[in-house]
Amino acid sequence: MSKYLLPRLNALDPYVPGEQPQDRRYVKLNTNESPFPPSPRVLAALDAQTVGSLNLYPDPLARTLRETIAAEYGLSSENVFVGNGSDEVLGFAFMAYADETRGATIPDVSYGFYRVYAQLYRVTPTIVPLNADFSMPVEGFLAQQQLVALANPNAPTSLALGLAQLERIIAGNANSVVLIDEAYIDFGGETCLPLLAKYPNLLIVRTYSKSRSLAGGRLGYALASPEIIDDLHRVKNSFHPYSINTLTMLAGIEAMRDHAYFDTCVSAICAQREQSKQALRALGFRVLDSATNFLFAAPPNMDGKAYYEKLKARGILVRYLSQPTLLDYVRISVGSAAQMQALLDATTAILQEDTP
Ligand SMILES: Cc1ncc(COP(=O)(O)O)c(C=O)c1O
């Protein structure tokens, strides 16, 4: 930390991304990336002509990309905002709707960035504890009079809330924005999309990083009423008008149009998830029923951190969680069949090692 940094920023606890170690090749099951490469149409589109156009700025309104996303969901481009990863979209939303005078309500267990953005924008968040079974207590999110942000399905619990319950939260906060982070919705759960026409306060945030295999491209989007989309543009244009680069813009258009590839990848991941869930349960793990591309799992006879460390020593990375209610668990991204077999083999060996 330099002596120049503002004291307020000195006090921040920045988001800690999942490890991306370079010391050896790991089986990476720690950041919920897709095990599959982007659609072949993405590769085909990034040709010499496109690369040759990088001397020019990209379209700051990302019109073709927004039209493509809108068409996919039966919306108009006035309902679509795009950002440099959904992290940036979340950041703009917090910047737009919460500050020291108007707070934000978030679950105690959810995507870690909500707390980071709250801190960054001087928001004292209202934290709603999850129920003991990790489900979302709907009552805790009603009548907040401030930004409400939650992930559905939630991370790292992998559980989804039903549409009727989500509607209660959205209808129960008519005077403030309800942000539903649908980063994992393509793998399960019910999308809030059907509620968009009815609720101008609903802000859905999505990402290309998981189901569309583009985590490295950094592309996320929001679906909302034109008023909310205008708000987000206002903030973006005061901060980073060209946040989507030309190559990612094109990649996003092609990935969205390749329905067959998307369906194949998502189905394979969901099938693998179910198979790995059963296999871990057979080994004595507690594993929640997942609506995502990861498993929230507690090993028998050891805590999450010990299991994480033993797996890491065997070249496999998962994510352990240091929040007090989550210490028994790890979050395991669903990888390819070969990666998941490696996880099971290593786990079997670890459990045998530990048996006296
Ligand atoms: C719930 C949730 N929201 C948002 C993100 C951020 O995704 P990205 O910035 O890659 O779009 C993640 C990443 O893991 C996530 O788990």
Q: Which regions are unreliable across 5 or more consecutive residues at pLDDT < 50?
A: none
Gyration radius, in Å: 21 Å
Architecture of the largest domain in CATH?
3-Layer(aba) Sandwich
Termini separation (Å)? 47 Å
The assigned structural class equals alpha/beta
Strand content: 5-15%
Strand segment tally: 13
CATH class descriptor of the largest domain? Alpha Beta
CATH superfamily of the largest domain: Type I PLP-dependent aspartate aminotransferase-like (Major domain)
Mean pLDDT: 96
Main beta sheet: 7 strands, mixed
Assembly level: single chain
Q: Which geometry do the CA atoms define?
A: globular
Query: According to CATH, what is the topology of the largest domain?
Result: Aspartate Aminotransferase, domain 2
Bound molecules: pyridoxal-5'-phosphate
Task: Tell me the domain tally.
Answer: 2
The order of strands across the largest sheet is 2-8-7-6-5-3-4
* DSSP summary: helix tally: 12
Q: Which percent range fits the helix content?
A: 25-40%
